[in-house]
Queue: 3 jobs
Job 1
Amino acid sequence: MSSWLIVIGIVALVGGLAYLSYRANQARVAALRAFALRHNLYFTERDDSLLARWEAFGGAFDEGFDREARNILHGAWEGRHALLFEYRFHTMENATNSQGQMTQTKQAHDRAVVALDTGQVYPLLSVTSENLFSRMVGRFTGSDINLEWEDFNREFTVRCHDRRFATDVLTQQMMELLMREPRAGWTLCG
């Protein structure tokens, strides 16, 4: 009898947490709608087609699976077209438990995306977090631009057909800013 009470308690707790999460998300959506209205922006809860828009510019959204573009704001911001949204994707993470068995869990990754039309045309410049794969590809193809700060080179992969442009954009101050948040990657395109 007491085991049933424990099961019922756990189910009630999980259901309560799910409900609270749902309510928090609804409050967030309402706040974003209000912000959009105050600033003459458009709001869309979800539009995954946005992720394909930048495929030609270095595959900024080709990580993982179950990719989503959510809580989208777009319109004119201080005279320039702006697009802001939350990008979520999933990966499978491997772990070994205490008995030595391999397990896989689905892991969600969230990113904030800000796209702003500057009215200028730039060469493609991509700055992304370095990983073993990107390091090997960069060395093999010679596409990873190494800058004068070795710690930065270990943290980030820099790709640009115009090395001079990349070094002009990635000043010491910009590299220091990026080193404070090594997961913050970005792409300048078009």
Note: The chain has five helices and seven strands.
Job 2
Amino acid sequence: PLLNTAVDADDGNPLLRDHARKALKAWQDRIESMITEGIRSGEIRRGADTRRAANLIIASLEGALMIARLERGDQALRDAVAHLHGYIETELRSQKRK
């Protein structure tokens, strides 16, 4: 949904682009907040790059959704979920919580 809006807005509709940018920022902030809370609780390793993780999660999900729509199937979404699960377990999860 965000990808569609961003592409539609591109340079031709600054108001729509601004709305899409704000939606992206809100999504990034929400994921970063969740990761920060995970750091505080000891579930996520200290020093995790919250913005990088948020961008990777969003990009993976948005890209997988685009592929799924074009292929009219859910394999790309399944692949993205599996990849993100591995990423969270190996790159973000605190060693103490494994």
Note: The two ends are 34 Å apart (CA to CA).
Job 3
Amino acid sequence: MRGIDHQQSQMFSYLSPETRVRKDHPLRAIRVMVDEVLAQLSRRFDAMYASAGRPSIPPEKLLRAQLLQLLYSIRSERLLMEEIDYSVLFRWFVGLNLDEEVWDATTFTKNRDRLLQADVAKEFLAQVVAQAQSQGFTSDEHFTVDGTLLEAWASVKSFQRKDGKNPPSPDDPGNPTVNFHGERRSNQTHESKTDPEAKLARKGKGKEAKLSYSGNLLVENRNGLIVSSEVFEANGTAERDAALVMLEQLPGTKRVTAGGDKGYDTLDFVAECRNLQVTPHVAQNHERRGGSAIDDRTTQHAGYRISQIKRKRIEECFGWLKTIALLRKVRHRGIFKVDWVFSFACAAYNLVRMRNLRKIAIQAA
């Protein structure tokens, strides 16, 4: 019998978003972990808001919505609000009922800026890592460091002379035609007018130079979870400087290992690692003047070979952050905001990875 094409004319629904999301949906496991983290941050949120006045968007809902943007590769806050408005799944994850009004994109962004100022992303990542440690998912002895370039949200046209001696534009001053051929441009003489903290950098010889930031990770070697993150200005020493900062922040006093590529094989970095009770398991760079900074006393051990195998897993983190979280070209300006969204994206990656690890553990039990 043919069914009748009923139109959606009912004004009331007696089903909540909770009943519409299937019990084995991947977001359910993530929501449980997120709620546990947010409960730990509740006191931090209390200190951020005034005790009187008009209620703002709850910070818990702001962060859950921000997670959805990263997990589902949503390119803008305006599109995120639209997705939350008509998606029952998204409303359930954020904590909105079906008849609740979704926020304006500008209102959402302004409320989120309060979280940017409080550096909640670092705390959120730390709480996620603490969860992983309590479940035995992380190593406390063996780590890997690496960095990558994050393209800034700034046009190359905005990279102009600091002294203001730029040639006048013969056409549209709002979008002038600029010919860079033959002009020597560097970070010492030029800066971006739209994002002054972005620096001109390139991945290697023969590669195109772009306005970028240096995104750096510290990853543990057991399951490839991100332990710490730092965003520095893109210069020749950013990766090594960020690695030392992250290694210094590791808790405890026992000796640990840190794997890395040939870019970390320098005398200064190796010496500073040893001062921090860190054994540098970096790849040897025999092309360096004077030879490699580490010798057979380090490379002869089986642990060094294992670190060199494990260190490649950090590329999986960078791949997810750049493709799924859309950080290949960041959509925020200024190193502070870029660092915030980079750290929060690292927490999102860990949540996805921990969900999979929990599933594997349950199946093996």
Note: The longest strand covers residues 210-220.
